[in-house]
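Quick start: what a row looks like.
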Amino acid sequence: MSKSVFHLSDGAPADLEEEKKEQEKASEDASVKEFVESVREDLLANNIYLPTLPALALEALLVINDVDSSSSDLQKVISRDAALTARLIRYANSPLYRGLNTITTIKPAITRIGFQRVKNAVYAVSMKEVFRTSVKEIEKRMDHLWSHSVKVGAQAAMLAKSQPGLDADVALVAGLVHDIGHIPLLTKACKYESLISKPDVLDRVLEKLHTQLGGSILKLWKFDPLVIAAAAEHEDLARDPGDAPVDYVDVVQVANILTYEGSDHRLAAVDRDAIKAFSRLKRGESHEADTVDEDTKHVEDVVF
């Protein structure tokens, strides 16, 4: 099909299709700029939408953070929710905590995990609720976001197990929340038809803003600074901590890239040799990969 062309009064040809594209691009840029500015204003005014953990999970976290609380106090709270109880028992039986015997009740599950460390377990098994939405426009995106977060979390946990000084539980949580900044952005984007109707444009906006916003959300939630750093810095592929020990940013960054392997996502095509996190982790030999992959899948199943 030939292009529509007309001539200006001075005789110069003008391409109507090109002009239309330019107008659409200008309109698109204006919508993106308006959205970005609105997000910044919301942040400054402390008016950004924040997802919340389930009430019982928050209650359990209060018990854990209370120096006068005991395992029995925590057990009483958790036992009031059959789903949370079942998830924590499965968590205690996961590859993160291999024991000689299979645990079937909550008391030994808390004992195996450890009273203080169970905080991360509660975060991990409750986080799915944060990614739920009743908004049809973003439902599929939120489901995909949760699925990806689970894969990154499980992969990060297994990578952390082989690194001195790192805790697999913390790595799991860091992976689960590494893209938490997407949630308020997707919720807000529903008010912008020009973004919701153009997935590629929305993807670019999410890519640009989600790390900064994710870090801000986790600060408000009073998460471990190490987890906050993973959310805020995992997209920085030029990051080079020098001789500093391997940290959770490293494992989340590597896990995030590995989960896109074989896809058409931009991170699937990055040069891993140029990313310091890969060389810093010094992953195991190929004969260990099958075991790591199997354990990773088991952890995914526990959280999902």
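That is the whole record. Residues 1-9, 284-290 have pLDDT under 50 and may be disordered. Residues 133-304 form a domain with the Hypothetical protein af1432 fold (CATH 1.10.3210.10).
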